[in-house]
Amino acid sequence: MMQQQGGGGSSNQLVVPQARAAMQQLKHETAQELGIQIPQGGYMGDLPSKVNGSIGGMMVKKMIQSYEQQRAGQ
User: Rounded CA gap, 57 and 49, in Å?
Assistant: First the structure.
């Protein structure tokens, strides 16, 4: 079970912390594909939730697609 963090910060924690840079790269690539400009400094809290949801949803779609392709190749 995941433990919720208090406060206004993000509670997202990577299962594999070494993947942080790759996940940031995926986020930036996905936002660019969707025509969304990530603010300087990377803070996305001022963007509408619909925009952030679009980025996150597309990231998940890409990760599932990658997994399916890997599994199909095995």
Answer: 12
pLDDT, tens digit (0-9, with 9 covering 90-100), for 16-59: 989 999 999 999 999 999 999 999 888 999 999 999 999 999 99
State the pTM of this model.
0.75
For residue 32, the SS3 value is helix
Is 60 a domain residue?
Answer: yes
One-letter amino acid identity for 53? G
| 44 and 26 Cβ atoms separated by less than 8 Å | no
Count of structural domains within the chain: 1
In a domain, 1, yes or no: no
* Amino acid, single-letter form, for residue 51: V
C-beta separation of 34 from 27 below 8 A: no
